[in-house]
């Protein structure tokens, strides 16, 4: 490590992390460590991502490990090696126990301070297979100037498969013998056996005509069998200084029930709490697995073709230029070009398109496509770290670092809510017996204990991150990559939709549809002159002129060539000065346009005017086709609440207005240079309400500044374009504008479900807190309002995942 401080991004798997509140505490705690610029913990993928700015990396890692062990002793940091896999020497022993999502819930009772930076994407660098390069997408939609350049070490690699799935692993070896639930078959059997034995002993104690110490002893045995692990964990929490986590509250409440002689209730409450936790853990794991299955596009192997044979290797081992064989039914593991074979490929995992695509020699294919019938040999064009699958998985996994305002609200809410409830509970236990005549201390203590059990905000802290992550997963399944919960939520507030024209609303495929020569020229000579003038241009219009000419062009005929930005081309051809471009170019060079030569309906396309030695030679009409779903998209956006649709284009006014009329756009601004488009967005931004969002949709090639300026920048058909992925907040992976409408539907549905959970959880808790305070609610209701509400909230969140197929 050199003496200069550099920003470095590191990633770790947190084995044993299966609790949103634990993730929140670790995130808050680690972000306070000196040298840590930001920290984000994704409890869905069990990943800790942090950016550091220090030459004391190893010391920071040691402090991080100590902090995590202090907060959650059963959670272990496991580094990843350069291949994106867990290091073998760091794996936990097989056999084991996985904590459920809320089991380790410390319910927001310990937060290591305020002001945590939630990493809004300014440091969103990624490391691929050990290669360091700057982030795809290092802007957050609002601050576009301070993108830190990041370097990575071997830890900072994404695992796109293993981290996503809920593995069982042991906590026994790292000092966590506390409250755990196995959600594997063996673990569930053990838990069910324990609960069954405890329930039988409690039932015997209930029915036997034994009183006094004998009855107490039987109930105590039942209690220890059913909830001994909870009590043990409560003691550990107390030692760690977390006196108000869920274990402590449950232990206090049930021991309190024993203290006032309610033995059956003490056992029963612990029994139903454990049952609730078991079901809740299963539901959370199922939800997490559903989310990871949505993104289960990572190929497991590649069939590498060598001179002697074909062998299975890891996709990371394949190099550019290698040949790989894809058999029917296999995923294409790397991007490349087909060199042999013909087949149909299913692209739905990447683009959401249901119709298979035909590929043959010369066709480009992307990792994540599935070969359906033929045998294909593909020449690899990108290493796995640069492939489409890597980029998609990386974007979706990093999305959790950019939290939505609702998530931030819940984090802040739980920070203040819990201490307030604890203080109220304390007052409830102490004040009434002192001021009310005849009030029993034991009665009010019981009410206070009920109050405390109800207070845990687990339902919110668990279900809301799941909701946003699920929404992002559902969108990716529909061919829309959303880079963060903040952008998913912002889609709900879009009031202005601004579009580029070429390649966004139109297909960007140009064809010559009319040639109108002046008197001294023929159609052939006019087209030849224009094709020669546009010989070195990369613009689609230039390509269409060369294609229409159809003959080989001789470079030696073009002596001088220069592009005039926003106007056209100036070139010396066969010793004559040729101008080819728009009407502004003719005007600038004082060439008189012959109105008679502009016959035909020139408002149907782009007009290229040609002049030779200062004399007007004629014009060529080039047309671009509007996308099939463009008009429907504009209409749907208006129904979804977009108040104004605007098109910004560099094309001539006549063509732009014709397209605008055809699509039903509210406003069309034409003949704009890239800086004018940026100015238009700035003007719009200055005149709108703060809560209204501006959406800009471009093709991601020359729209980078505008994509960065808009509140939500959308790159169209940008999967293959690094520029698009880097600049945009949302990437639509195919060329269909209508996917934008799908994304907004998913955003609205996600918001609806998240707010249903917020209102339901807080509503139920408010009712039961009131009932508890008045002595109407017992421990039974308290357990329902905690565990039951969380379970229902998680089950509700799973509906988010179905949105892609429903819309």
Automatic annotation (TrEMBL):
Mode of membrane association: Multi-pass membrane protein
Task: Note down the stretches annotated as region Disordered.
Answer: 116-185
Q: Where in the cell is it found?
A: Cell membrane
Q: Where is composition skewed (Basic and acidic residues) in this entry? A: 131-146, 156-185
Annotated SUPFAM superfamilies: Calcium ATPase, transduction domain A, Calcium ATPase, transmembrane domain M, HAD-like, HMA, heavy metal-associated domain
> What is the first-listed, main subcellular location in coarse terms?
membrane
Looking at the keywords, is Ion transport present?
A: yes
- Does this entry carry the keyword Hydrolase? yes
Domain (HMA) spans 8-76
What transmembrane ranges does the database entry give?
A: 191-210, 216-235, 416-436, 448-469, 758-777
EC number from the UniProt entry: 7.2.2.21
Which keywords are on file for this protein? ATP-binding, Cadmium, Cell membrane, Hydrolase, Ion transport, Membrane, Metal-binding, Nucleotide-binding, Phosphoprotein, Translocase, Transmembrane, Transmembrane helix, Transport
The reaction(s) annotated as catalysed by this protein in its Swiss-Prot or TrEMBL entry are: Cd(2+)(in) + ATP + H2O = Cd(2+)(out) + ADP + phosphate + H(+)
Which NCBIfam families does this entry report, sorted A to Z? ATPase-IB2_Cd, ATPase-IB_hvy, ATPase_P-type
Q: What is this protein called?
A: Cd(2+)-exporting ATPase
Species whose genome carries this gene: Paenibacillus ottowii
What gene name is given for the protein in this entry? cadA
